[in-house]
Amino acid sequence: MFEIAPLSTSFSALITNKINNKTKPLGALGKLEFLAVTLAEIYSDNAGAWQQTLEITQPNLIVFAADHGIAAHGVSIAPSEVTQQMVMNFANGGAAINVFTRQCHWQLTVVDAGILVPVAESLGVLNQRLGAGTQAIHLQDAMTTAEVIKGFELAKSLVAEKHQQGCNLIAFGEMGIGNTSSASALMAVILNLSAADAVGRGTGISDNVFKHKIKLVQQAVDRIKVSQPTPNEPITLLAQLGGFEIVQICGAMLAAAELKIPIVVDGFICSAAAMVAKLINTHVSDYLIFSHASGEQGHAAMLDWFDAEPLLDLDLRLGEGTGAALSLPLIMAACGFYNDMASFESAQVDDVVTNQ
């Protein structure tokens, strides 16, 4: 379904030379330099020619929302009804993600991927429902493989539409009570960890609820290991442990990489989707920009698995795509210095870098 080419390094030397000849010591702009290289390599590969200037057009952040069957079993401080309530909050412009996307100039799309009760179409929420919430993953598979494939198809069409409208930078967020349990289970299986090493406190649960959450996630992981000792088929893994929103985020990431669009990865849930996407096609990693280090305990292990250094570390654990949204000013700064910062030659400044 997805044909993702490895990112070409044909223009890497030109890009690196351009950055190194800016009026600064080598590497002095730190992660912004790595970010500029990543963007320049992607855009140059896409154009088939070295891009001496970088331009972000129509940046889109898409929030996928869905409910989880495990939420009915006491793993969160909030009931599943909060998912729908927050989707309505998104639609009405009152959530953190609305504030940050407005402030940082993202275009925001909210998608119902499978909440328990759909919201009125008049609110402008896009209907890509795969069902009314998943099954409880500690008891049975979350969904069917057919539903996973359908989710991929819907996500691919949506990303293609954004691309046709001129989007060349995309990010994803999520909303779904119970989805940290699903993401933790996916992570535990992929990294061969215990639930205790993968599960975090999500929305800020008590010690007792935390222990209960670990127990249920471990049941989900054990259920998979019993039925499939080496669960290395990612489509099956998503059907067993995923969420409808996680499925569509995973598919959207693969679709964006196929179109050679840089993908800004949010926190814990989106990183879990990215892990499955990498299992499906390892080349998706070439297009991932990790926006921040989540406050969820398992996120550090995810980032290590990708060998990724996030742009921000703000102890965020809200989800919604908030960390991804906040990274856009840094992405614009990376483009700005790449485009406009003088070279030693143009500024008539002694090249202290290559002349030492």
From TrEMBL:
Q: Name one Pfam family in it.
A: DBI_PRT
Any one Gene Ontology MF annotation carried by this entry is: nicotinate-nucleotide-dimethylbenzimidazole phosphoribosyltransferase activity
Q: Which InterPro entries match?
A: Nict_dMeBzImd_PRibTrfase, Nict_dMeBzImd_PRibTrfase_bact, Nict_dMeBzImd_PRibTrfase_N, Nict_dMeBzImd_PRibTrfase_sf
Q: Which pathway? A: Nucleoside biosynthesis; alpha-ribazole biosynthesis; alpha-ribazole from 5,6-dimethylbenzimidazole: step 1/2
Question: Per the record, what are the reactions this protein catalyses?
Answer: 5,6-dimethylbenzimidazole + nicotinate beta-D-ribonucleotide = alpha-ribazole 5'-phosphate + nicotinate + H(+)
UniProt keyword list: Cobalamin biosynthesis, Glycosyltransferase, Transferase
Answer whether the UniProt record assigns the keyword Transcription to this protein.
no
The keyword Glycosyltransferase appears for this protein = yes
Source organism superkingdom: Bacteria
User: Which residues act catalytically here?
Assistant: E320 (proton acceptor)
Which EC numbers characterise this protein's activity in its record?
2.4.2.21
Give a short account of what the protein does: Catalyzes the synthesis of alpha-ribazole-5'-phosphate from nicotinate mononucleotide (NAMN) and 5,6-dimethylbenzimidazole (DMB).
What family does the entry list? Answer: Belongs to the CobT family.
Q: State what protein this is by name.
A: Nicotinate-nucleotide--dimethylbenzimidazole phosphoribosyltransferase
Q: What is the lineage of its organism?
A: Bacteria, Pseudomonadati, Pseudomonadota, Gammaproteobacteria, Alteromonadales
